[in-house]
Amino acid sequence: MTIYLNGEFLPIAEAKVSVLDRGFIFGDGVYEVIPVYSRRAFRLPEHLKRLQHSLDGIKLANPHDETEWTRIVEKLIARNEGEDQYLYLHITRGAAKRDHAFPNPPVPPTVFAMSSPLPTPPAALLESGISCITAQDNRWLRCDIKAIALLPNVLLRQMAVDAGCAETILIRHGSEDGDAFLTEGAASNIFVVKNGTLLAPPKDNLMLPGITYDVMLEIAAANGIPCEVRRVMKAELFSADELLLTSSTKEVLAITHLDGKPVGNGKPGPMFARLHSLYQEYKHNVMRK
Ligand code: PDD
């Protein structure tokens, strides 16, 4: 695999980063995951905009403008295997003497990117749907930043794996238990379907503004599917007709079991079938342009 590191394209085995890198020491950095279809990065401007939002959130200057990022991305895709790829961008505050405060004067950031073949969700998963568990969302209050410091997400996802499930759906608790509401998955966004309406949690500081989430809402609106973007209560999650999971790597999947109980009739429902096919259509149309 050829990777990009600080201006150079290198075989991955030759790429080296200092042990004092603040990404390694503090998790002080941000990242992006971008799906590549037919060797073209999907929604690249939107991903670069979110990257800018994350960089602003950690007060780190963007090392490249959109043209430079596009050039790096295109070269990386061309140098790696697979028509469909999984592109990863990662920027840290660079290597400096260990001190929590930012290095002063600033040091050059570490800019890393890699791309590997994108495994598409297996057909069996689309037919059966996935099982998920719920857990308390114990992350910080800036979940809108795509930070590389992912320990809470790692531990939350592992809870699902230990339970033989695919994902952990996160619930924030207000002051009363009745206030408990859905935020997102450990590495995905979650939609609730009730009486033919798609319910989506709002893009605030408590969730990552998913690029796939935006595509879902856009294609739903364009096809007359009723949507409500608002706080979704825990009780609504458990009385849903259908639950959907989205991410750049999973696209859209039906959640058919939650905490061991069937969602609706325990099979992928009509909203999933419709949105999955509209998403495939959208993707193919965009990539053909
Ligand atoms: N994660 N929420 C969280 C916490 C995520 O980590 C992700 C994606 C999403 C979905 O966002 P998008 O549709 O833009 O992929 C929501 C990526 C895939 C990852 O960390 O590997």
Could you name the key traits of this structure?
single chain; 289 residues; alpha+beta; D-amino Acid Aminotransferase, Chain A, domain 1; D-amino Acid Aminotransferase, Chain A, domain 2; 2 domains; 9-stranded mixed β-sheet; 6-stranded antiparallel β-sheet; 8 helices; 30% helix; binds N-(5'-phosphopyridoxyl)-D-alanine
Structure in words:
The protein has 289 residues and is an alpha+beta fold. It has helices spanning 22-26, 44-57, 66-78, 123-128, 151-162, 211-222, 234-238, 270-288; strands at residues 2-5, 8-11, 29-37, 40-41, 85-92, 110-117, 130-136, 167-172, 181-185, 189-194, 197-200, 227-229, 242-247, 251-258, 261-262. Bound molecules: N-(5'-phosphopyridoxyl)-D-alanine (PDD). N-(5'-phosphopyridoxyl)-D-alanine binds next to helix 6 and strand 13. N-(5'-phosphopyridoxyl)-D-alanine is lined by residues 33, 153, 184, 187-189, 208, 210-213, 246-249.
Sum this structure up briefly.
This protein has 289 residues and is of the alpha+beta class. The chain has 2 domains: 2-117, D-amino Acid Aminotransferase, Chain A, domain 1, CATH 3.30.470; 123-288, D-amino Acid Aminotransferase, subunit A, domain 2 (D-amino Acid Aminotransferase, Chain A, domain 2). It has helices at residues 22-26, 44-57, 66-78, 123-128, 151-162, 211-222, 234-238, 270-288; strands at 2-5, 8-11, 29-37, 40-41, 85-92, 110-117, 130-136, 167-172, 181-185, 189-194, 197-200, 227-229, 242-247, 251-258, 261-262.
